[in-house]
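Holo prediction. Input below; ligand is 6-O-phosphono-beta-D-glucopyranose.
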Amino acid sequence: MHAAPSAALILFGATGDLARRMLLPSLFGLDAEGLLPEGFRIIGTARSALDDAGWRALAAEALGQAIDPARLTSCARDRFLARLAYVPLDVTAPGGFDALAAAAGADAERLAIFLSTAPSLFAPTVEGLARAGLAGSGVRLALEKPLGHDLASSRAINDTVATAFTEAQTFRIDHYLGKETVQNLIALRFGNALFEPLWSAAHIEHVQITVAETVGLEGRGDYYDGAGALRDMVQNHMLQLLALVAMEPPAMFEPGAVRDEKVKALRALRPFTAETAAAFSVTGQYAAGAVGGAPVPGYGEELGRPSDTETFVALIAHLDNWRWRGVPFLMRTGKRLPERRTEIAIRFRPAPHSIFAGAALQPNQLIIALQPQENIRLTLMAKQPGLDRGGVKLREVPLDVGLANAFADTRRRIAYERLLLDLIEGRPTLFVRRDEVEAQWSFVDSLRAGWAAAGMTPRRYIAGSWGPSAAIALAERNGASWRE
Ligand code: BG6
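Structure of the complex:
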């Protein structure tokens, strides 16, 4: 059973980067396919003194940049723009919310509200909404990251939100959960009987999760320098991927069941200490180099000041539970790496004995590639064709599920399309529950405390390389090597 769809969306941060690059194009995508409810309105709000026409012009420009011209027909565009209205609002000024309530009008009880603003504005926003009567039981509130910078600040945000909205009304966004291949991980594990018997320490040697980016700061220095790679990528997206790989089978694909299993996995993460932080993690910061053949400046130069913030992190996580006892989860992420690549690689244990004298058997691997291509690949050993006079020769060959080919007639959507529609329709499975976020922060805080206690600072790596060489040694010390 699902709740009634929202009648309108209020978008805080309506002129911001996320709104332009992702949210407005996603809402357009939903509208163009007839997926928004009849008469659905989108009310934008931000500090800029725009009017409806001004925000529509901004939105039209954003759509022009993000949407394939073949889909951006004038008819579809005009219909979408007609849904938009704008209310200028300084959330810290008293009384400003009345205009928003007036704009919501009769839809005030059936709103979806999306906060795409700095978390420092969450508290006054939530208070303002409650005071203006915009926090009724039919309202859903979506929160965009960062949800705090550590466990304490995250709890403070969650407490503030909870003064006006119940947990069931609170939709915490992790846009990785909106990606098709991430959802496919659940389908792969629980839609096939093949993997489950092998899915444990008995048959899996290690798991590798890589999120490599070629971009640098992208003009987000103020935010990023206060966050760093661990908080920006590991705390949320990568730990969610880990949870989906590691969780026990939920009884149903249903919000409570799925999130109960994820949080159990996250809580099984072994916290770091000063000793284990130094032994099982490496941080780095990029120095000037070249990415894709183009020279790029170092982090400090891009930022405009020296900094000790990490732009790369590699770590070995362990889950202390029966299923994963002794299986290292290798995780690494960084900016200005040689290529954009997001993947999960499951490496199975080697065959116990080779019957083929002299032929090396490579362990099987299951590689789930999320970006840039969506693809699932199983590597297998196969016989090389030939008469085998000198003995059987084997070679590793891939068994590929090219998702782009298998589902060639479906459009690749922006992750936010799925999440916005789920928000509007009140489906919380792909949103992060409070206990999950807090378990993620506990783990991340233990590592940061470990770095501080061990006096660790980021090592330099050349932009366009795979991070500090210590990261390679880290994997090798744990009986693995990074896939490159
Ligand atoms: C965001 C981070 O959450 O995710 C960015 O703040 C990062 O730093 C981005 O670039 C990566 O997302 P995607 O979907 O491009 O992999």
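The CA atoms of residues 128 and 167 lie 19 Å apart. That is the main takeaway for now.
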